[in-house]
Design brief:
Blueprint lengths: L1 H24 L3 E2 L4 E2 L5 E2 L2 E4 L5 E6 L9 E6 L6 E4 L12 E4 L5 E4 L5 E4 L13 E5 L5 E5 L5 E4 L7 E2 L4 E4 L6 E2 L1 E6 L2 E12 L5 E6 L2 E8 L14 H4 L1 E5 L5 E5 L7 E5 L5 E7 L4 E8 L14 E4 L6 E3 L3 E3 L2 H5 L7 E3 L19 E9 L5 E3 L3 H10 L5 E5 L3 E5 L6 E3 L6 E7 L1 H17 L1 H28 L32 H7 L8 E4 L4 E6 L5 E6 L8 H11 L10 E7 L2 E7 L6 H6 L8 H21 L3 E3 L8 E3 L5 E3 L6 E3 L6 E2 L12 H6 L1 E2 L1 H17 L14 H11 L17 H14 L10 H8 L16 H4 L17 H8 L1
Parallel strand pairs: 1-4, 26-34
Antiparallel strand pairs: 2-11, 3-8, 4-5, 5-6, 6-7, 8-9, 9-10, 11-12, 12-13, 14-23, 15-16, 15-22, 17-18, 18-19, 19-20, 21-22, 23-24, 24-25, 26-27, 28-29, 30-34, 30-35, 31-33, 32-33, 32-35, 36-37, 37-38, 38-40, 39-40, 41-44, 42-43, 45-46
Length: 838
């Protein structure tokens, strides 16, 4: 069946082209070239094709008559899909138009009277200088006018976008000069002249995409966080969607789409101001719409007025934020929302210093899956700081946190807040007066009272369960001899030093009460940070031992799988470079893991905070080696084969001697016997540390851990976060930047200033070399962990030359316009998955 279909396809395509050509321009003749030069004159009946037959350039009319002829570019497979029009404001009225290169080197379009009706208009600096150029139609759909002798591009259609946003094209904004390049719509679908809609990037502060109607915002994408536009549903990552924001030295920030897709897809701003993404279905010979914006009522900018939130599944769709009420109830009730909402109870900080209110500080009400409001201010910082920064300043109305951005604050108004039902948005915290929170608490009390009866019944069950547990534990205890000595104070704790044969039932159990006492009732002041599935607290047992308690947030209902996964994985492991699990607590609604406490916290703090100066090169090398040993143990030396899948600096803990210990096994996978590669539908992990084949195809193996390890090594050497945002070299990413320096023989520029002692130069360079070997794009080129350790210890002296690292080509190729096929991802179904996701 496939055979018949395939052999028919070229024939059908041929037919389409022929039929179309006939309607388009009578007897089109395709010139056998992709380039217009000074001796070639393109007539109305001629077309040229890009070398891979992706795009065609020629003359066309839009409504079947010959009354208005345009010169432009369209998809070879879909001639009615025009991507760019030269004379959009100036149609020809007959078929006498010609295109050629003028004596000044410009590409010109002339009518039958040899009058120039359109020209590329580039000027040379002394205008008398005459240069020879050719105009080439590239497979990216870009028409590039280049100087022959130097190859310099004098003009290109991709820098003058119209309604189509093609891969490698850019829309841009320069916050310093205000210069911008936007998409602009056609007037109607039959009339390519300038319409009322534009779409582009606004890059003052955090970059966001907009659609404007006559300059007034109509849709907003939410802030770019270095990975996705946070207010767009179903966006996954730079690597998969291909969208990216980057900047140039002159301050221009641009939004682009890399050339990753193997299938044909297009994004256009259509004549009604809707951004439409569609992919070409070869079998149906038609475009399949995969995503649109705005897609529903709530997507329209500021649909509900200020201080309200729009949720398409609510009825009515608009509601005031907590602590706010409609400005005009009558209007609001009639569905006129433009008036928005106003604050119901003044904030404590707004009232004159009222002594009786001292203990009634304002608080925050949390909303999840939110497209955060427009006009944000931001600062770097970690999640826990955002709240106190906002609380301290009375003009702060709300805050939000995104790991790629930091803290975001709002001080004037909260406009265009939208809630999603899944897979988009951020957590958003609105400041409210204490009394508004009290309401919430009272409600909670009421609920608690109402369930007390059922709790009574439950407690009887619990007692029975506890009694049985206790018996079981006693049995276990006697079976394994005495509990560890030194565990005075509580008979509840059973610690065992030999963790080798532990399984879940045998894992020491801690009571909730003991852990609550140890952590001062989970005092927020004792919070160490957030683990994979919940907060981590520092605690001290009655015997003086420090512990770290990771608590699965009972309320969220999430993370149970990760919790169980972590218990299963880590209870079977023991190695000096893996964090040690001491026990667990599964009681009532509570699920907690108890770890040894590590004095120095996580690696990211010391590595990325430039004011920290403790990690000299010796310590860093020790850390690189230690992590390597821990990984090797996971991959090879333990009886199981384990892939960690989420290796990053915040998951590396440091003990008091600065020895690294790998933690957070919530996402780790155990491989059976001789299996060494697996697929997963759900890609988990952290952006920036994931190997390309995993991020894009969901395939993971020990080589994907090796990739993360390589990123980690480069971060340790550079002291810079791979995902760092708004940095000078952002447009390359750490890997691309390292690769660039390496090839330019400037690799020493990467070295963190804090470890720039020339005595270590050679060793650091060797580590960088190893790091680059680990992040190579093709997974089978990457060394195994045992090879890495041999290289680190110089057992292996001669290192291979590293190949191109993963995820960098899109940066360097942004406007080269070469064919995509050579570097297309090898995972063959991911492209479709992604498209469907949007
Ligand atoms: C212009 O292109 C035509 C067709 O490809 C070719 O025959 C001709 O030699 C070219 N002229 C110059 C000056 O390159
Ligand atoms: C560009 O060319 C047009 C004619 O097509 C002319 O009217 C216009 O002044 C030129 N613009 C510049 C900046 O040279
Ligand atoms: C442009 O081409 C002409 C003839 O092909 C040649 O005489 C002239 O030197 C060229 N000019 C430059 C700047 O290359
Ligand atoms: C075709 O489009 C041109 C330009 O927009 C317009 O002048 C002409 O009337 C249209 N013809 C028909 C039949 O719609
Ligand atoms: C564009 O906007 C102007 C001003 O709002 C309006 O008069 C005009 O009809 C609009 N054009 C189209 C094609 O909708
Ligand atoms: C623009 O796209 C939207 C969504 O696909 C569609 O409903 C609308 O009709 C389109 N407008 C035009 C003028 O094609
Ligand atoms: C396009 O849509 C049709 C019908 O909805 C579907 O059968 C087909 O698989 C889609 N093609 C692509 C390439 O998404
Ligand atoms: C101080 O608070 C009390 C009770 O909340 C209130 O009755 C009083 O009016 C407040 N005083 C001022 C100056 O706001
Ligand atoms: C409070 O925030 C506003 C705007 O965010 C800022 O202008 C002001 O300086 C801040 N005040 C203090 C005391 O930090
Ligand atoms: C909000 O912050 C901006 C920037 O700091 C400042 O210019 C503006 O005046 C502030 N607005 C209010 C109401 O505090």
């Amino acid at each position: 069946m496939m055979g018949t279909k395939n052999s028919l396809k070229p024939f059908l395509q041929f037919l389409t082209v022929i039929t179309f050509s006939y309607f388009r321009c009578g007897f089109c003749s395709s010139l056998n070239t992709d380039t217009i030069n000074s001796t070639l004159i393109l007539r109305d009946s001629d077309t040229i094709h890009s070398i891979g037959n992706q795009f065609t350039l020629g003359f066309f009319s839009l409504n079947g008559t010959t009354t208005a002829r345009y010169m432009g570019i369209w998809y070879y497979v879909s001639p009615s899909s025009v991507t760019w029009v030269a004379n959009r404001e100036n149609p020809l009225h007959d078929s006498s138009g010609t295109v050629t290169i003028s004596s000044s080197g410009n590409l010109i379009l002339m009518n039958g009277n040899r009058e120039i009706i359109w020209s590329t208009n580039f000027t040379t600096s002394p205008s008398s200088v005459i240069i020879n150029t050719t105009a080439q139609l590239l497979d990216s759909g870009n028409l590039a006018l280049r100087e022959i002798s130097t190859g310099n591009t004098m003009w290109e259609s991709h820098r003058h976008p119209q309604n189509s946003f093609l891969p490698t094209m850019r829309v841009s904004h320069n916050p310093r000069t205000g210069a911008r390049v936007d998409l602009n719509s056609w007037r109607t679908s039959q009339d390519p002249s300038l319409g009322n809609f534009t779409s582009g990037l606004y890059a003052v502060g955090i970059p966001q995409m907009y659609i404007w109607e006559n300059g007034i915002p109509m849709w907003r994408s939410g802030p770019w966080n270095g990975r996705i536009l946070t207010g767009v549903t179903g966006m996954y990552s730079v690597y998969v969607d291909g969208f990216n924001v980057a900047n140039e030295d002159d301050g221009t920030v641009y939004f682009t789409r890399s050339f990753r897709q193997r299938f044909i897809s297009r994004n256009i701003l259509n004549a009604s101001g809707v951004l439409v993404e569609a992919s070409w279905d070869e079998d149906l010979n038609n475009w399949n719409v995969t995503w649109t914006a705005p897609a529903n009522d709530c997507d329209y900018y500021n649909r509900c007025g200020a201080f309200s939130v729009c949720f398409i599944n609510d009825l009515p769709i608009c509601n005031c934020l907590r602590g706010y009420e409609p400005r005009n109830r009558g209007e609001w009730g009639r569905g006129v929302w433009s008036g928005g909402c106003v604050r119901r109870t003044p904030l404590q900080c707004e009232r004159a210093n009222n002594a009786t209110d001292r203990n009634r500080e304002d608080g925050f009400s949390r909303l999840s899956l939110i497209k955060v409001p427009d006009f944000m201010q931001w600062s770097t910082g970690v999640e826990t700081e955002c709240e106190s920064l906002c609380l301290r300043n009375c003009s702060c109305l709300a805050y939000a946190y995104d790991p790629g951005i930091g803290c975001m604050f709002w001080n004037e108004t909260l406009i265009d807040v939208q809630r999603f039902s899944a897979s988009a948005g951020s957590d958003f915290y609105v400041r409210v007066a204490y009394s508004e929170l009290v309401d919430e608490r009272n409600n909670r009390v009421a609920i608690i009272v109402s369930v007390i009866a059922s709790l009574f019944v439950a407690s009887i069950c619990l007692f029975l369960a506890w009694w049985m547990c206790k018996r079981k534990r006693k049995n276990a205890k006697s079976a394994h001899g005495n509990g560890e000595n030194g565990v005075s104070g509580s008979s509840e704790i059973v610690l065992r030093s030999d963790m080798d044969n532990v399984n879940i039932e045998e894992l020491p159990l801690y009571s909730f009460e003991i852990l609550a006492n140890a952590t001062n009732n989970f005092d927020l002041g004792k919070k160490l940070g957030m683990g994979g599935f919940g907060p981590v607290f520092k605690g001290k047992l009655a015997n003086g031992r420090d512990i770290a308690v990771k608590r699965l947030s009972a309320a969220s209902g999430q993370g149970f799988d990760e919790f169980m996964n972590e218990v299963v994985v880590i209870s079977k492991l023991q190695h000096r470079n893996l964090v040690r699990l001491l026990g667990c607590c599964v009681e009532k609604e509570e699920k907690m893991l108890i770890y040894e406490y590590l004095q120095n916290g996580s690696l990211d703090v010391f590595l990325f905070d430039k004011t920290q100066d403790v990690l000299d090169w010796r310590k860093r090398f020790n850390i690189i080696e230690g992590i390597g040993r821990g990984l090797l143990y996971l991959h090879r030396d333990s009886r199981l084969k384990i892939i960690h899948r989420d290796l990053k600096p915040s998951n590396i803990l440091l003990d008091d001697n600065w020895n690294p210990k790998i933690s957070d096994f919530g996402m780790a996978r155990i491989f059976g016997g001789n299996q060494d590669q697996a697929n997963t539908g759900k890609v988990v992990g952290t952006y920036g540390y994931m190997a390309p084949e995993y991020a894009m195809g969901g395939r993971f193996s020990e080589k994907s851990d090796v990739f993360s390890y390589g990123v980690l090594v480069l971060e340790i050497i550079s002291g810079r976060r791979n995902t760092s945002f708004y940095s000078d070299e952002f447009s390359l990413g750490l890997l691309g930047y390292a690769w660039k320096l390496w090839n330019e023989d400037n690799a020493t520029d990467l070295i963190d200033k804090r470890i720039s002692d020339p005595n270590f130069r050679t060793e650091i360079m060797r580590c960088m070399h190893i790091g680059l070997l680990c992040v190579q794009e093709v997974s089978k080129d990457r060394p195994t962990m045992s090879t890495v350790l041999s290289m680190l210890s110089s057992e292996i002296v001669d290192l291979q030359v590293p190949e191109h690292p993963g995820f960098t080509d899109r940066w360097s190729r942004t406007h080269v316009g070469s064919s995509s096929s050579s570097n297309a991802p090898s995972a063959n179904n991911i492209t479709h998955t992604v498209m469907e996701g949007r």
